[in-house]
Write a structure and sequence with these properties.
Blueprint lengths: L2 H11 L4 H9 L7 H7 L13 H16 L8 H11 L5 H11 L41
Helix pairs in contact: 2-4
InterPro entries: YehS-like
Pfam families: DUF1456
Length: about 140
């Protein structure tokens, strides 16, 4: 198990998004961009995969301690912080997710398709114009206004 695996498992277990991870890293003055962070979470066979170094993981863990426990001057209760994060999440139960997917993915039949050119008529009246009228010729001269 390498640093990338540990970082991925912590992200999933704590339900952290990329912007939250960046904020946690900023608590210990460690700057990382979203792109670099995304490269750390990619699969190993991806061309943009980046190895998670010891420094990145160490700073994330130190920032996570500050995020959950607070500082000596302003201590926090970690259970309250995690409960607040869980309260802000709005996850659908599994039954609702399945029902919602069934509503969206309705199979199409051949009768649903309209033949080409027989859609809704446009409310805008179109006047017939010739192909020559669509082009503007300026003969190399600019207009003086």
């Amino acid at each position: 198990m390498n640093n990338n695996d540990i970082f991925k498992k912590l992200r999933v277990a704590l339900q952290l998004r990329d912007d939250q991870i960046i904020e946690i890293l900023n608590l210990v003055n460690f700057r990382v961009s979203k792109g670099e962070l995304a490269n750390v979470f990619r699969s190993e066979d991806h061309p943009n995969f980046m190895e998670c170094g010891d420094q990145l993981l160490r700073n994330f863990l130190n920032g996570l301690v500050i995020h959950l426990r607070g500082t000596k001057e302003e201590p926090k209760n970690p259970k309250e912080v995690l409960a607040q994060i869980a309260k802000n999440k709005t996850a659908l139960p599994r039954e609702e997710k399945k029902a919602e997917v069934k509503k969206i993915t309705k199979p199409k039949t051949s009768g649903d398709k309209k033949p080409f050119g027989q859609g809704k008529p446009s409310a805008k009246k179109q006047k017939p114009e010739s192909a020559v009228e669509r082009f503007k010729f300026n003969s190399g001269k600019t207009k003086n206004k």
